[in-house]
Each structure stands twice: as C-alpha cells, then as structure tokens.
Design a protein that fits this description.
Layout (H helix, E strand, L loop, with lengths): L7 H21 L9 H15 L3 E2 L12 E4 L2 E3 L14 E10 L2 E10 L5 H20 L7 H13 L3 E2 L5 E3 L6 E5 L16 E4 L2 E3 L5 E3 L6 E3 L5 E3 L2 E5 L4 E3 L9 H4 L4
C-alpha cells in the first residue's frame, strides 16, 4: 500500500481527532492515583469519548480488543487490558494509550503516568522515553529518511543503558488506524521512505529498563518484558509540514510545544 499524502481538509479532520485523543489523557490524569483500578480508568475514558466528545474509541472491538483504551502497568509493554482486578499502587508506571475516531479520522496518542510517589528507576525510564520521542520529532522535516528517526531514538536510549522494543512500531494513520509507513524505533531498513509534507504517522517508542525482548500473554493481547523489567512508552500523531512537523495530539503538559511551535 502506498503512503498517502493528506489534503488540507483531511489534516484539519485529523487535528480534531488528535485534539480529542489528547483531551482524554488530560482528563484522566487526576484519576491515576493509588487505589484506582485500571478498569475504572477505562470506564472514565469510554464515557468521555462516547458521551462528551461524541466520538468513537478505535480500540474497542478492534480485532476483538475488549476495552476502550489500553492501560499497561510496569512490566507490561503494550496492549494491557484494563481490569477491575488491577489496582494501582505507589510507584507504578502506567501507560494509557488512546485512539479516537471522529468523522472517520483517527487520533492516536499515549503517555506515562507515575502513580503516587515515584521510584528513581521508574521516573528516569519515563523521562528518557519521552525525550527519545522528542528527539525524533525534532528531526522530522521533508527530505529526510524515515530511518533517521529510529536511529536517533536507539542511539539516545541505549546511551542511557535502556533498550528499544523491536516488535512494535509507529504507523501511518488517517481514515485507517494503521496505514503505511511502518515507523521503526531503531536503526533498520525503511524501504527507502523519504518524508514528504502531508504524511501523517505516529511515533511511539517503547523503552525497556532491561532487555528489549518481550513475550505475549495467553490472552493474546498483553505484552510484557521477557525479563520482567519496567517498560515505558510515549506516542504522538504528527503531520509532516513544509519545514518540520505539527503534533496533532499535543497536550498542555507537553514541554516540546515551544520547540515546534513555528514548524506547523
């Protein structure tokens, strides 16, 4: 499948979907506290998406996924299924991954939350993971090879003695949840993809405190680090502009906003 170049009208619809996805993460932040269950967080997100935003959760029912958002705690790398049995406690690192559909277009984003009092390792892992995403986003502009993003992420993460998950990647996005191209977060063949204005895709590095290898649980969804080390992930949906990129899922707490504010 070819990489689609979005029209200004399509990009505007993606701005709307991206803003809604970011808003879900802003809404849920005060609720990520010791004692809450991931099931309750999912219900709050579902209610916000469907009732307040009049939008659709792309995750709910996607290939049979049973919940509206993915919530991954500690050693869970991605695709954690929210549950009333999973109670959050002090020091947990939690990823909430939200994809909203509005007027047929997708906005996809995730961020880490640290529950209560952070651990030194958990706080550092989250900080490094977010910075690896920012490093990649600062590189985005027409004419550069896609693999430059993965190379920069891998170099930074490994210099911090962490590792980058290989099996999952960012992806093109628009009317489709997952479109071309695949956006790898380590240095690997990109098929010769050169960035062009109007491309829309996610960048979403998954970083492990230990080894990069993973394992999938019997539920067919939950992915954990093989060595049980902590894992973290941050994700944004972006559009390549004439001189950089615009983050379509930008949140108010994003420190990268000032760096990219003139790139849209």
């Amino acid at each position: 499948m070819a990489i689609s170049i979005k029209t200004p009208e399509e990009i505007e619809k993606m701005r709307v979907a991206g803003r809604l996805a970011a808003e879900v993460l802003e809404m849920i932040a005060p609720h990520v506290v010791p004692g809450v269950t991931t099931g309750e967080l999912d219900r709050l997100c579902h209610d916000h998406i469907t009732n307040k935003q009049q939008a659709i959760s792309a995750c709910l029912g996607y290939h049979g996924f049973p919940k509206s958002v993915c919530i991954s705690v500690n050693e869970v790398v991605c695709h954690g299924i929210p549950s009333d049995d999973r109670v959050l406690k002090d020091g947990d690192v939690v990823n909430v991954d939200v994809t909203v559909i509005k007027e047929e277009y997708h906005g996809d984003t995730s961020k880490m939350f640290i529950v209560g009092k952070p651990t030194i390792q958990g706080e550092r892992l989250c900080r490094v993971t977010q910075e690896s995403l920012y490093i990649a986003l600062r590189l985005v502009k027409p004419g550069i090879r896609l693999r430059e993003l993965g190379r920069a992420i891998q170099q930074y993460v490994e210099a911090q003695d962490f590792s980058v998950v290989r099996e999952y990647c960012g992806h093109g996005i628009g009317k489709g949840f997952h479109e071309e191209p695949q956006v790898l977060h380590y240095d690997a063949d990109d098929g010769g993809v050169v960035l062009q204005a109007g491309m829309t895709f996610t960048v979403e590095p998954m970083v492990n405190a230990g080894d990069y290898r993973i394992r999938t649980m019997k539920d067919g969804w939950t992915v954990k680090t093989k060595d049980r080390s902590l894992s973290a992930q941050y994700e944004h949906t972006i559009v390549v502009t004439e001189n950089g990129c615009e983050i379509l899922t930008l949140r108010e707490d994003d420190t990268i906003a000032a760096v990219l504010e003139n790139n849209a």
